[in-house]
Predict the 3D structure of the following.
Amino acid sequence: MEGNSIIETKNVNFYYGASRALTDINISFEKNQVTALIGPSGCGKSTLLRLLNRMNDLIGGTRVEGEVIFEGQNIYAPDVDPVDIRRRIGMVFQKPNPFPKSIFSNIAYAPRLAGMTARNDLEFLVEEGLKQAVLWDEVKDILDKSAMTLSGGQQQRLCIARALAMKPDIILMDEPTSALDPISTAKIEELIDELKKTYTIIIVTHNMQQAARVSSRTGFFYLGNLIEYNATEKIFTNPDVKQTEDYITGRFG
């Protein structure tokens, strides 16, 4: 593994049935960095994201070739437990998807499943997760209320807190602000900036300005290929590939 890489793909091809969604992807993600994946719809960026924690396993007829090396181990090796991988590589989706339970239970749900039962431990974990997601002050007096009563932006921060409760190493975010208003979006972006001190974050975004604001590295995908991967500033000011420049300047996409 080069440098400070925490997860990397080696010659990865991915298929939905007979159709190839990713071709020969080699990409390395650095620890405690925010990496943005950009490109037009259907270019493979969300497929790659879900590949990194084996979420695609849940879709019938899919097939992976190549390796995804996470902390030295191929996560697609036969002896690897995908549930353990998903615990260590958390995911936040495009639309907030809180469980129809109390705010407290949303965050305590996975730790309880994992065997944590002591109320004190759960209370500590819930408070810690909500503080990390900058939501504690807004909800600390209504923890027993349904998460469905929260605003969209609050629900998305709750989903981030829920992912953090499992103490992951990596957080994957699939367009986490596309369903949110500008103020909520700004809060999530500030939160990403804070979380990278502790976690590695990989974010798929359609919003170029967001990629430029939050990430230190950016990968540009087109038709299942990784066209260019470099420091975000270079990608946005002086890309090596004309196709990248055309996409960023809005000539296509």
Remarks:
- The chain has ten helices and ten strands.
